[in-house]
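The protein record quoted for completeness.
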Amino acid sequence: MRNTLFLLLFISALFLRFYRFSATFVFSGELGDNLLSIRDIILSRHLPLLGPPTSHPWLSFGPLYYWLSTPILKLVDFNPLFFALISLFLLSSTLLVHYSSVSKLTGFRTALISLALLTISPAWIESSRSVRFFDFIPILFYPLWILLSSAHFFYAGLILGLMFNFHFSPLILVPASLHFIYLKYRKSANFFKFIIGLILPILPLFTNLSMLGKLAIWLPYRMAGLAPAGNQPGFSVIQFLLRQFLFTPHLLVSILIFTLTSTGLILVFRHRHQPHLLLLLLFFTWGILGIGLHRLPPSHYYLPLYPIPVVLVAFALTRLPKIVTALLITSLLLINFPHLFSPKLYYYPSEVIYGSGVQYPIQLSLSRAIITDARSRQFSLSRVGPFDVYAKNYAQNFEYLLWYLDNPPVPDSRLHYTIYEAQSAPESSQVIFSHPGLAVVRSF
């Protein structure tokens, strides 16, 4: 029965992540920028020591994502959709890691309930289907949790250091890790092992001392809330907790979620003599405090904490009768179900541009329209739309697609195309491609 339930949940989770992915995949400018860099690595045969750039042009993450993605992009012959599908497959393996890890640490019932919550979690579905490089952070949370709670300090530090290759948001886990070592294994050698393990995966960053110097100057200002916030919309702790379970706010269910989360925290606190539960409590407490220093950070800053709310709620639900737990999870599914297939999400039947994203088939049609209109002439490219304050107007996705279709844009060419996303093109402009919420304008 246990294996049947697990298999049913896993298949359901895969369906919600893979169904119509090729039709609704949004090839973002950020992913386009990553693929351009990985393409250059393949063509130049040069292994980089820095990884994807942050929103600050002077700061980059570690290079591991580029190193791992290079053979994948080469394997799929530079096809961005196939690359995204393989990334989605790897991200979906987090479900297996979650079930295995939580079963080992807290028992199969907590693992099964939390897997059911993950299966229909809006935050987890969105994270998987966006296939961004930092979406790999949660899968590394589980070995960190297991290794640190079992006193394998060097390897725990190694895992945490690997996380910094995908984003710097796991910094919020460092105080919790050090606090845990202090409370349970108070020896200087243990701290030393952990720190050495932490440093090793980010050694390539030390080749750029100028970048690290700027980071050392900038970080205190950011922690004090004095540095300017980024351009992405902010996400509160309350939004983070609710998004783990709900697509849209629902008062009664929100109250229930907060009640179950609080109950889970109380239960974990009462059993804090168990190392893995003490560590979970510290991760959550220090993590929320660390997030608070950022005021309202983008949603992906919460990724290091993603596994915790579902485990806390599942831990609370294990104290209820099985029929009550089943009814609560079923009710949650029924509340979320209409939103899963609404025009604002991924599974609707028609091609509609939603939010600030343009689906891959439309992006491909747009790119081919530019190539057809250019008639083998050189052209340059720009974009007006969400996030166009970033490098190259956040148009690296179209730049990559045009290169992939053998017609890359050439800077400063007389013939110029401007892509307008989520807004109308100027009146009297020469529109060569249009779609609701999207247009391409030719100019000379």
The CA atoms of residues 20 and 124 lie 17 Å apart. The chain has a mean pLDDT of 90.
